[in-house]
Amino acid sequence: xxxxxxxxxxxxxxxxxxxxxxxxxxxxxxxxxxxxxxxxxxxxxxxxxxxxxxxxxxxxxxxxxxxxxxxxxxxxxxxxxxxxxxxxxxxxxxxxxxxxxxxxxxxxxxxxxxxxxxxxxxxxx
Length: 125
Fold this sequence. Notes:
By secondary structure, this protein is mainly α. The chain has helices at 2-25, 31-58, 64-90, 99-120. It starts with a helix and ends in a 5-residue tail after the last helix.
């Protein structure tokens, strides 16, 4: 249930950020910074949906890698999308230096999810 709730909240924030970017920021940000902001919202939505996959998978298997994947998606979203939002809104390019750490969390999360499903013998997954 935790991952489903986190997924729903994250999806809400992603939609709100996307709308904010499209309406409130379009006239205030340069096109490159607006694209950065939109990338943050897009990847947040992808990983909000991934949290629903994790929530479903944990109901079918107790393998610890599945839960680890969920937390990696949460941490990755905070670091990846959060740093892109901050970079776009502040214009401080140095904030982009931490963005790849969030990307690594995303990649690790996908590998952990695959491993947990494969090794956990999640029936029907």
